[in-house]
Amino acid sequence: MKTMVIKVGGALLECDKGMVRLFDTLIQLQHKGWQPVLVHGGGVLVEQQLSANGMTTTKHQGLRVTPEEQMPIVAGALAGIANTKLVAAAKQVGLVPVGLTLADGNLVQAQVQDPELGCVGQVTANQPQLLQQLLSLGMLPIISSVAADAQGQLLNVNADQAATVICQLLKAPLTLLSDVSGVLDGKGQLIPELTPELAQSLVKSGVIDGGMKVKVEAAQAAARAIDNRVLVASWRYPEQLAGLIEGHSVGTQVYP
Ligand SMILES: Nc1ncnc2c1ncn2[C@@H]1O[C@H](COP(=O)(O)OP(=O)(O)O)[C@@H](O)[C@H]1O
Ligand SMILES: CC(=O)N[C@@H](CCC(=O)OP(=O)(O)O)C(=O)O
């Protein structure tokens, strides 16, 4: 069996049709002999929950500044609302999901990335055994991007970086599914192949920015770790999910 790590952005959680299509895709991948592992974001939900609790939030270079007092709400949104919603939707279509965070099973080691960003975590791969066991039982791990450091502090990890660390941990191919069809150029056209040189120039000119800059950098780190291309595509378009199953080229291939 071959493992595949798939990450979905939080906007998926607002789209019931998108969730059904995604889990149908995972079932078909299982039938083709793949063992998928799902990593998810939930940035939209985090914003809704912080605002419902009278809190404001900002991002710095695509990463959410996370003061300690906001961490319980962030963890509640990602590991609570988002994770359980995906687990329930996966279960509904007959998959056997197991909801996890990055803090479970010694999967990763986490530490504060930069004190200026508050409780934002940076993570390194640690022990794959928990995931290997779940996969050998035919289960679908669904992992939120909440981690805990050695001092027991919960940390908020960008979900693309969380997916990269799980890809490094399992040495498995990685697909990052967003709400856009891939990395777009200055005219809004899809870039089928993104080399490090092209990425560098598009970041420099501001064409790739915000969440996509973090995503491309996470994809490049994963591509280097597995010495293979990483796919950035969309959960929104059925033809892209079909391409994923059939192994056709869709979205943007990010080169190491
Ligand atoms: N060059 C680009 N190509 C595509 N999207 C871009 C680009 N530059 C910035 N973006 C923004 O990045 C977003 C995707 O990043 P993000 O919101 O973090 O996605 P997700 O939540 O799916 O991980 C797009 O919706 C778009 O607004
Ligand atoms: C540190 C940091 O930025 N954490 C992210 C975690 C969720 C995430 O990445 O969600 P998407 O994949 O939907 O963008 C956040 O708080 O939004």
UniProtKB/TrEMBL annotation:
Catalyzes the ATP-dependent phosphorylation of N-acetyl-L-glutamate. It catalyses: N-acetyl-L-glutamate + ATP = N-acetyl-L-glutamyl 5-phosphate + ADP. Residues 2-233 form the Aspartate/glutamate/uridylate kinase domain. Its EC number is 2.7.2.8. One of its GO terms (biological process) is L-arginine biosynthetic process via ornithine. This is Acetylglutamate kinase. Substrate binds at residues 42-43, 64, 156. GO terms for molecular function: acetylglutamate kinase activity; ATP binding. Belongs to the acetylglutamate kinase family. ArgB subfamily. The record marks 7, 215 as: Transition state stabilizer. It is found in: Cytoplasm. Keywords: Amino-acid biosynthesis, Arginine biosynthesis, ATP-binding, Cytoplasm, Kinase, Nucleotide-binding, Transferase. One of its GO terms (cellular component) is cytoplasm. Pathway: Amino-acid biosynthesis; L-arginine biosynthesis; N(2)-acetyl-L-ornithine from L-glutamate: step 2/4. InterPro entries: AceGlu_kinase-like_sf, AcgluKinase_fam, ArgB, Asp/Glu/Uridylate_kinase, Glu/AcGlu_kinase.
